[in-house]
Specification:
rod-shaped; 89 residues; transmembrane
Length: 89
């Protein structure tokens, strides 16, 4: 008897899920698709911005590591070299 109840519950559960999705209108499906696409683009924007910010942080760290406070012209040369390097990327 226990085994029959298990299959009966699965059958009714599957039928309920099918009935729920069948009751959605085209407008509902469009809303769901819009939410999913919006979430996807939000995540992509976040990760692309994060990657760009990490690049900038690395470049600024390279400048900070190579800066010589006693020789401003050498510092200007380092900044110039790094700006040319970033424009190539």
């Amino acid at each position: 008897m226990k085994m029959d109840e298990k299959y009966s519950n699965a059958t009714y559960g599957g039928a309920g899920i099918t009935a729920f999705f069948a009751s959605l209108s085209l407008q509902d499906w469009g809303f769901i698709a819009g939410v999913l696409i919006g979430a996807l683009f939000t995540a992509l924007t976040y990760f692309l911005n994060r990657r760009e910010q990490m690049k900038r942080t690395r470049i600024l760290q390279e400048i900070a590591d190579k800066v010589d406070a006693k020789n401003p012209s050498a510092t200007a040369q380092v900044v110039n070299d790094l700006s040319q390097k970033t424009s190539e990327v």
